[in-house]
Amino acid sequence: MASSTRVDLDGNPIKPLTICMIGAGGFIGSHLCEKLMSETPHKVLAVDVYNDKIKHLLEPSTLPFSDRISFHRLNIKHDSRLEGLIKMADLTINLAAICTPADYNTRPLDTIYSNFIDALPVVKYCSENGKRLIHFSTCEVYGKTIGCFLPKDSPLRQDPSYFVLKEDESPCIFGPIDKQRWSYACAKQLIERLVYAEGAENGLEFTIVRPFNWIGPRMDFIPGIDGPSEGVPRVLACFSNNLLRREPLKLVDGGESQRTFIYIKDAIEAVLLMIENPARANGHIFNVGNPNNEVTVRQLAEMMTKVYSKVSGESELETPTVDVSSQEFYGTGYDDSDKRIPDMTIINKQLGWNPKTSLWDLLESTLTYQHRTYAEAIKQAISKPVAS
Ligand code: NAD
Ligand code: UDP
C-alpha cells in the first residue's frame, strides 16, 4: 500500500512525485503503472494512443488510487499538450517506441522516426524545463557480440570478455544498412547519445535503461484475438499463439540465437529503484536483464512447450517445432542479434538490484496468464465457420 514513510536507499524519505509516463499503455508501461499505484504514493500522467492494457487501473473511478492516475490520449508526434504535461511532472519516463523486430525491416521509416525523431521533443522539453528524464533504450544498441566474428571453433568464444555486454566498455556493432534491423538499434543509439550530450552540455538529469528481453503477461498481442491476424509480435507472444492454437512453434533460422529473459516484475523493481533514487541513478546507463536465464530460442520453445502442457493440462504436440527461414518469416533485410548477456556490475553497485525469477518460474506464471486470458477466445475463433 502507498505509505508516506517510504525511504530511499540512503534512508532519506521519498517525496511523492508526479510522473509523466509516455507509452504508459504498452507492456512495460502497464506494469510500471500497476506498481506505482499499488506500492507508492506517486501520481502518473499516463500518455499513450491506447489504454486497453491499463483500463483496469483507470476504471471504475472508485478505485483507491483513482485520483493518482489520469490518462492522456495523445500522439507525441504532433500534440502541443506534451510540453504542458512534462512541465506539470517532476519526472518524465519515455517508453514510446516501435520496438517489434517484424517492424524494423517492413516499416523502417516509422521505426527510425519513432525511436529518434519523435523522442527529440521529449528530451528537449525535459532539458529546457529542468525536468528529470528516464529514457528507455534497448540492449540492441550493443548489436552483435565481438565473439560472433571469431571462427566457430575458437576457444575464445567461451571467454566472457568476447560476449558479456558492459554499458561503459562494449562497442556497438551493427550490420550493413540493408539489414534494416539495425535501423532500430542505430536510432536508439543516437537518441542515447543525444540524451547524454544534453546531460553533458545543458545539465539534463537523465537515466537510460537498456532492457534485455523483459517478458510477462500483457506483452504484445495474440494475432487474430487482440491484434491483427497477420501481425508478428515478439517471440513470447508468437510462441504463446502457436501453443494456444496447437501449432508447431516456428524457429527462425534454426532457433540458434541466444537470449536472456527476465520477468517483467523483477525488471519493474529496478525501474522503481531508479525513480526513487535519483542521486544514484542520474547520469547512468543501466543494463536491466537476467544473465542467469540464458537459452537459445530453440531451448525457449522446448521449455515453453513443457510449461504450457503443465499449466493447460494439454498434451505436447508430436512435432512441437518447425524450422522457417528469416526471409520467409520476416522478409528481406532481417538480421539477428547472436547473444545478449548483460553485465550487472553498474546496476548492482548503484542500486543494489538483482533479478530473482528463474526462466521456468516466469514462464509458468506468464503461460498461466496466457491460457486463462486467451484459450477460450482461441477456441471460439477456431470453431467459427470460415465465410465462403
Ligand atoms: P510496447 O509497444 O508494448 O509499448 C510502447 C507504447 O508506446 C505503446 O503502448 C504505444 O502505443 C506507445 N507509443 C508509441 N508511439 C507513440 C506515440 N507516437 N505517441 C504516444 N504513444 C506512443 O513496448 P514495450 O515492450 O513496453 O517497450 C517500451 C520501451 O522499452 C520501448 O522504448 C522499447 O524500445 C524498450 N524496450 C523494451 C524491451 C522489452 O523487452 N520489452 C526490450 C528492449 C527495449
Ligand atoms: N523468433 C523465432 N520464432 C518466432 C519469433 C521470434 O524463432 O516465432 C526468434 C527471433 O528470430 C529472434 C528471437 O526469437 O532470434 C527473439 O525475437 P523477439 O522478436 O522476441 O525480439 P529480439 O530479442 O530479437 O529483439
From TrEMBL:
Signal peptide: none annotated. One of its GO terms (biological process) is cell wall organization. Belongs to the NAD(P)-dependent epimerase/dehydratase family. It catalyses: UDP-alpha-D-glucuronate + H(+) = UDP-alpha-D-xylose + CO2; UDP-alpha-D-glucuronate + H(+) = UDP-alpha-D-apiose + CO2. Its main location: cytoplasm. One of its GO terms (cellular component) is cytoplasm. Pfam families: Epimerase. It comes from Chenopodium quinoa. It is found in: Cytoplasm. This is UDP-glucuronate decarboxylase. Residues 19-289 form the NAD-dependent epimerase/dehydratase domain. Its cofactor is NAD(+). InterPro entries: Arna-like_SDR_e, Epimerase_deHydtase, Lipid_A_modif_metabolic_enz, NAD(P)-bd_dom_sf. Its EC number is 4.1.1.35. The gene is LOC110731808. Keywords: Cell wall biogenesis/degradation, Cytoplasm, Lyase, NAD. It comes from the Eukaryota. GO terms for molecular function: identical protein binding; protein heterodimerization activity; UDP-D-apiose synthase activity; UDP-glucuronate decarboxylase activity.
